[in-house]
Design goal:
With 134 residues, the chain is α+β, with helices and mostly antiparallel strands. It is built from four helices and seven strands; from the N terminus they run ααββββαββαβ. It has a seven-stranded antiparallel beta sheet with strand order 2-1-5-6-7-4-3. The longest helix is centred in the C-terminal third of the chain and has 15 residues. It is globular. The protein starts with a helix and ends with a strand.
């Protein structure tokens, strides 16, 4: 289990396994926030968040434009209970990583994600967690 996941209370880890939608916040090239609803997975073994998307999607383009310093925040909420996962993000279309992202997504949401021709995965190396009422 990753250090970040190990430090999460069991209730927060359980909350992050529920098949819910979250919001992903990226920064546009002009520095303004772009917030979009997403489905995601959180791998407690690696501390990695995965969001499947189109390579041409604004969120993916924002991450690419941010380069190695691209930081993002993903927040899953249910009423006044929430967890925000922050970290550095990258975008990849590597077939092995896409297969892993699709496998995790299918297990969580009980259906495969959409599969556009330009399928990519945003991977977030979580290094900070904020939570309330979990």
């Amino acid at each position: 289990m990753s250090r970040v996941a190990a430090e999460l209370p069991a209730t927060a880890r359980a909350f992050l396994t529920r098949p819910r939608t979250a919001t992903l916040t990226t920064l546009r090239p002009d520095g303004t926030p772009h917030v979009t609803p997403v489905r995601f997975t959180f791998d407690t073994a690696t501390g990695l968040v995965r969001v499947t998307t189109r390579a041409a999607a604004r969120k993916a383009r924002n991450v690419v434009a941010g380069g190695r310093a691209a930081r993002v925040a993903l927040c899953q909420a249910d009423g006044f209970r929430w967890v925000t996962l922050e970290g550095r993000a990258t975008v990849t279309d590597d077939p092995v990583r896409l297969t892993e992202a699709v496998r995790h997504y299918t297990a969580r949401y009980r259906a495969a994600p959409p599969a556009p021709e330009d399928l990519a995965v945003i991977e977030i190396a979580v290094d900070r967690v904020l939570a309330l009422n979990l």
